[in-house]
Amino acid sequence: MPVEPLSQKEIEDRLAELPGWSVEGDRLTRSFRLGSHFAATAMVVHIAQVQEELNHHSDLSLGYNTVALSVNTHSAGGAVTEKDFELARRVQDLAGVHGAS
After folding, report:
1. Do 64 and 37 meet the contact criterion of CB atoms below 8 Å apart?
2. Please, how many CA atoms are within 13 Å of residue 31, restricted to the half-sphere of its CB?
3. CA 76: distance to chain centroid?
4. If DSSP codes are grouped into helix, strand and coil, which group holds residue 23?
5. What is the pLDDT of residues 13-55, one digit of tens each?
6. Judging by beta carbons within 10 Å of its beta carbon (0-12, 13-18, 19+), is residue 10 exposed, middle or buried?
7. CA atoms of 62 and 53, how far apart (whole Å)
8. Is 28 within 8 Å of 78 (Cβ atoms)?
9. Is the dihedral angle over the CA atoms 18, 22, 14, 46 positive or is it negative?
10. pLDDT per residue as tens digits for the range 68-79
C-alpha cells in the first residue's frame, strides 16, 4: 500500500504533539543532547533497532554528546508521511529513557 504525503495542516497537527521536532525543507528533524558520548551512542543503537523494526530509516548523526535525526519517505517522493511521525514518536520515547533533552 502506497504511503501518501501529509498535508501542511496534518504536519502542523502532528508537530504540536512532538516538542522539539520541526520540518526543515522536506525532512522531519530533531537534535538531542545527552549527558555523555556513551549515552548518545547508546541512543543511536536503540534508534537503529527501532528503524529496523519499522523498516523505515533516517539520516542519523552522532556527535560527542548529541544525536541528530532527519527523515522523510522516499517512496512518497521524499515527502513527510505518517511513517516519519511514527518513527519520531518512537525516538521521542527513547529520548526520555536516555535522559536526552
Report:
1. yes
2. 8
3. 17
4. strand
5. 999 999 999 999 999 999 999 999 999 999 999 999 999 999 9
6. middle
7. 21
8. no
9. negative
10. 999 999 999 999
